[in-house]
Design a protein that fits this description.
With about 140 residues, the chain is an alpha+beta fold. Helices cover about 55% and strands about 15% of the residues. A three-stranded mixed beta sheet has the order 1-2-3. A hairpin with a 4-residue loop joins strand 1 and strand 2. The termini are far apart.
Length: about 140
């Protein structure tokens, strides 16, 4: 009986580690794929027979794609990459309520300003001003 308890504990540990690795890899994949759409995070909800993945982004229309094609493509990619069975995975796009207070969205915004050739100080002050104007306590 004691051995069964130890085995279950190890399995639980393995499960947490596997979940963490899944989350990290999923986050990396989505942040590469959805950088231009203001990707700011992902939430994974698991039920025994279904897994829901909620993608948080500032531009949800771009994440969905025209007629939902892009989100279907993302679903297919994730199903293949992580060995999900068909109809076991649901993807949703959720809008970030206040993008000014989302660090990931602002970092992407700054990145595109710099890639667009804007001067560093000007780009940074623009982002900081935008954040502070939406009632943030501070920004660094």
């Amino acid at each position: 009986e004691a051995m069964a308890e130890v085995a279950r504990r190890i399995n639980k540990k393995h499960k947490f580690v596997a979940d963490g690795i899944f989350y990290a890899e999923l986050n990396a994949l989505l942040s590469k794929e959805l950088a231009e759409d203001g990707y700011s995070g992902v939430e994974v909800r698991t039920a025994p027979n279904k897994t829901q993945i909620i993608i948080k982004a500032t531009r949800t229309k771009n994440v969905l794609g025209e007629k939902g094609r892009r989100i279907q493509e993302l679903t297919a990619v994730i199903e293949k990459r992580f060995n999900f069975k068909p109809d076991q995975l649901n993807l949703f796009a959720e809008r970030v309520e206040n993008r000014a207070l989302c660090a990931a969205a602002q970092a992407e915004s700054l990145r595109y300003k710099l890639l667009g050739g804007l001067a560093v100080r000007r780009a940074c002050y623009g982002v900081i001003r935008f954040i502070m104007e939406s009632d943030a306590r501070g920004c660094e």
